[in-house]
Design brief:
alpha/beta, 6 helices
Amino acid sequence: MQQQFIEYSHAGTVLEGFLANPARAGERRPAVLVSHAWAGRDDFAIARAKALAELGYAAFALDNYGKGVLGANNEENSNLIGPFMADRALLRDRLLAGLQTLRAQPGVDPDRIAIMGYCFGGLCALDLARSGADIRGAISFHGLLLPNGLDPRPIKARVLALHGYADPMVPPEQVVAFGKEMSDAGVDWQLHAYGGVLHAFTVPEANDPGFGTVYNAGAERRSWRALVDFLEEIFA
C-alpha cells in the first residue's frame, strides 16, 4: 500500500494531506476524501484513510487548516473552526482544492470519488456535495447538518448522514430541516439515526456527557457497516 503525505495549497495557505492507496502500477481505484473533525487533520483521520485503503479504496485525509495546524483543546478547536463556519464559501473552495489534489494522484479514478467526514468533517462532506462537485457520494458521521447559506447548486452526489439522535449539537429540528433541504434538491439521500447516541460516537476517547460527546461502540459498528455498503453501491 502506498502511504505518503502530500502538500498542496489554497489561498496562500500550505496544506498537507495524507494519501493511502492500494492501487498497483497501471491501476486506478475509486477514492474517498476523509475530512477531519474540528481539531484538524489528526491521527484519527489518517487511521480512517488507512482503513478505507484496506477495503480497496484510495483515501486522502485532507487538510482544511494548514500544514501542522492542530488544536489541543476545545478553545483552540473552536478558534480553528470559527473562520470556516463564518465563511462557508471559503470552506467550499478549500474542500474543492482537496478534491482537485486527490483527482490528480496516480492510481486514482477521477470519475469515482466520494467524501466522508466526522463532526466538522461531516459538515465539510455535505458542503462539498452542496458545491455541485462531480462526486459520487457524501457521507457525514455525527456531522453538523446546517445549510451553508450560499446560492444553491445542483447536488450530484448521493448523501448518507449517520446521526446520533440524542446529539445536543444537532437537535431534531435541524435534522428535519436537513431532510427538507435534501428532498427539495432532489437528492438521493439517506439518514441513519441511532437512538440514545450523542455526538462524536465514533471517537473512542470521547467521554464528556456534559459537552455532549460520548463514544458508542454499537453506533460506531453500525455506521461503519452503513458506510461500507454505501461505497459499494455508489462505486458499482
